[in-house]
Write a structure and sequence with these properties.
The complex is a heterodimer of chains A (260) and B (429). Chain A has 260 residues and is an all-alpha fold. Chain A contains 14 helices and no strands. Chain B has ten helices and 21 strands. The chains are: A mainly alpha (260), B alpha+beta (429).
């Protein structure tokens, strides 16, 4: 493991160039360019605000519903879009894997890092919304990077597992969109955790994104009741997935070039 | 001398069928349901490499040849750490750069310049190095005008030029090259060859796989012939090439019986029975390479004594162009009498200055005394002339360059002292 980490460290420039490539290529020849990073969560938020916030009257912990859902969509969009990119990173770069040696884990890592640009762009809009709703950010806003970081770790853990499986079983390619689609509903994005009957809330905590989004919102809006159990559970699941993901990746990466 | 590459008992096994059949989870589940406790169906196993061991000294340039599927590429891939051996060990000293495909990892949407950085970095260059060498790389590629154009607009040739330009500046201790000289135009090939010559001069270890025998012979001092996953022969490049090419032509390829030939004319008192291609030192020559010597032995059988016959041989190209017509009469030879029985004549050619390709021989024996043809065979046998370095270069010369080449040289004295004449290092080799 130590050797693995040191090799990755030596190849950090490759990581940078791969991430740079992903970012550079993503919006080439798209007229709206990087604005697409904003449009997706924005329009989802507008739709949600209309159907769930206005028509269905779903509560939002005292925060304006658009702000409530957008703050979660920010992380969720990064999670779902990047997870699918990380999961497909090996098969999408099969020509590289079969022709050049470099630490394979750089491919999923580059995809996970490359997605952060989109997150950054859509975060700028979040600041705009906070100003619009006259929400003065508290000092806890400085803690939000913790949850962004946790999302990256989660995407890496789950993504390494899926990417390695994807090399052998292309089923994974079809599983990821399905997974993220379901995830949208079993994560408190549209609704607050308190909206669910109490006996379901425990189950929701098993979804690591629940803790991430709760913590992220708490940092942004205050709100008082931080559920430490949920946060702890979320971190345990995240680190467990990271461990399983990197273990599986490590134990299968030798055959990638033969199988992909 | 230090050892640059050490390979010990290397084997690589592929499981055939296993790759395609069970890449869907469904198939595995179905199998599990059908026979929950059954053993897995035995898989067909292919040993791409079997117990291969060798060492390469620093600075050696080794050419690896062999038929398709012999295991050459698997060997290179293992040396390049792209794939892992089933058993055995590989040790390489210093930075290893593998060029298995020119421009691997290029991205269509990125410009030439951006791809230099991307490709260079993945191949193991630091960003600082790329920065420092950028200008030289661009100049080597000859793509100055297009360097800020996305490479999706590049032609295949331009892509490979860019790819090789990056590779030529990697500055590795060990360079592994797989069949890259096959691409690009003649001018660029020349550049690649001289870049590889520079590597050779710089004490770099090079492993080079190619099907271009002329390039391999010109560049490499040591050769390795791989067949069926094993090293069949390891030795001086020229010997290995000749043994390898000899394996294509079986011994009877060099000695062709003519008795059964259908379309033959003539009255038949004397007939050609066999044609043999021999080397000047006596034995059968299974491989005939351009520019080298050749003895064509014509065996005959005379049913009765033949007075004053004339033997003749014509050589045609595959397209039917007459290359040469030669015979005993043309050489002023008057054979008073051929006794009854078997015999032969030798035609000795000092230097077969024909471009590589397939040629056909027609044979005739007639009489100087009367208008009588004893035996005539059109396109009786073919002669394959294989590549060899022509003009001392690795350039692949074939029918596009005409039919023949002469021992020759260009004199540039008349151009004047102001002209800077670029001589590729290959020309001196």
């Amino acid at each position: 493991m130590g050797q693995w980490v040191s090799e990755i460290w030596h190849s950090r420039e490759i990581l940078y160039f791969l991430a740079w490539r992903d970012v550079k290529v993503r919006y080439k020849q798209a007229a709206l360019g990087v604005a697409w990073a904003l449009l997706q969560p924005l329009f989802t938020m507008i739709t949600f605000a209309f159907f769930f916030g206005k028509l269905a009257g779903i509560p939002s912990d005292g925060v304006p519903y658009p702000l409530f859902s957008y703050s979660a969509l920010l992380l969720w969009t990064y999670f779902s879009v990047t997870l699918s990119q990380v999961g497909n990173s090996l098969i999408a770069n099969s020509s590289l894997i079969t022709k050049i040696y470099f630490p394979r884990v750089l491919l999923p890592a580059a995809a996970a890092l490359g997605g952060l640009l989109d997150l950054f762009v859509s975060s700028v809009f979040l600041i705009g919304m906070l100003l619009y709703y006259h929400m003065t950010p508290r000092w806890t806003v400085l803690l939000t990077p913790i949850f962004v970081g946790q999302t990256v770790l989660l995407v890496m853990g789950l993504g390494m597992l899926l990417a390695a499986l994807n090399v052998r079983y292309r089923d994974v390619k079809y599983t990821i969109p399905f997974l993220t689609q379901l995830g949208l509903f079993v994560t408190p994005i549209i609704y607050p955790v308190s909206f669910l009957p109490h006996r379901f809330q425990g189950w929701l905590a098993l979804n690591p994104m629940t803790g991430v989004i709760q913590g992220f919102r708490a940092c942004l809006f205050g709100g008082g009741q931080v559920d430490w159990d949920v946060l702890g559970c979320s971190w345990i699941v995240t680190l467990l997935l990271l461990l399983i993901g990197s273990w599986h990746f490590r134990s299968t990466e030798r055959v990638f070039a033969d199988v992909v | 001398m230090t050892e640059s590459i050490t390979v010990e008992n290397l084997s690589k096994r592929y499981e055939l069928g296993a790759l395609q059949q069970e890449t869907q989870l469904r198939d595995q589940l179905v199998r599990l349901l059908r026979a929950p406790f059954g053993r897995r169906a035995p898989k067909e196993v292919l040993w791409a490499l079997r117990d291969v061991s060798f060492t390469v000294q620093q600075g050696e340039v080794v050419g690896i040849i062999g038929r398709n599927g012999a295991g050459k590429s698997t060997l290179l891939k293992i040396l390049a750490k792209i794939t892992y051996p089933t058993s055995g060990r590989v040790r390489a000293r210093g930075r290893v750069a593998a060029l298995l495909e020119v421009g691997a990892g290029f991205h269509e949407e990125l410009t030439g310049r951006e791809n230099i950085f991307l490709n260079g970095s993945i191949m193991g260059m630091k960003k600082k190095e790329v920065d420092a060498k950028l200008e030289a790389i661009v100049e080597f590629s000859g793509l100055q005008r297009f360097i800020d154009t996305p490479i999706k607009r590049y032609s295949t040739g331009m892509r490979s030029r860019l790819g090789f330009a990056v590779a030529a500046h990697l500055d590795p201790d060990v360079l592994i090259v797989d069949e890259v000289l096959a691409v690009g135009d003649a001018v660029f090939q020349k550049k690649c060859v001289s870049a590889m010559h520079d590597l050779r001069g710089g004490g770099r270890t090079v492993l080079f796989v190619s099907h271009n025998m002329a390039a391999v012979e010109n560049l490499c001092s040591r050769g390795m012939w791989i067949a069926e996953g094993r090293i069949k022969l390891d030795g001086p490049m020229r010997e290995v090439i000749e043994a390898y090419m000899g394996s294509f032509a079986s011994a009877d390829g060099a000695s062709k019986a003519l008795i059964a030939a259908d379309a033959r004319g003539g009255s038949g008192e004397i007939r050609f029975t066999r044609v043999e291609f021999r080397s000047t030192d006596g034995g059968l020559q299974t491989v005939t390479r351009c520019g080298k010597s050749l003895v064509i032995r014509l065996h005959y059988r005379a049913k009765e004594p033949i007075e004053r016959p004339a033997f003749a041989l014509r050589m045609y190209t595959e397209l039917g162009t007459l290359v040469t017509d030669t015979g005993t009469w043309l050489h002023g030879l008057d054979i008073p009498l051929v006794p009854a029985g078997d015999g032969y004549l030798d035609l000795e050619i000092d230097s077969l200055n024909l471009v590589p390709g397939r040629y056909y021989l027609s044979l005739k024996v007639d009489s100087l005394l009367e208008t009588r043809v004893y035996d005539a065979l059109e396109h009786a046998v073919h002669l394959d002339i294989e590549e060899a370095p022509i003009y001392g270069l690795s350039r692949r010369i074939d029918s596009r360059f005409g039919l023949v080449f002469f021992p020759q040289r260009w004199r540039l004295d008349g151009i004047g002292s102001g002209a800077r004449i670029e001589v590729s290092p290959a020309a001196n080799g």
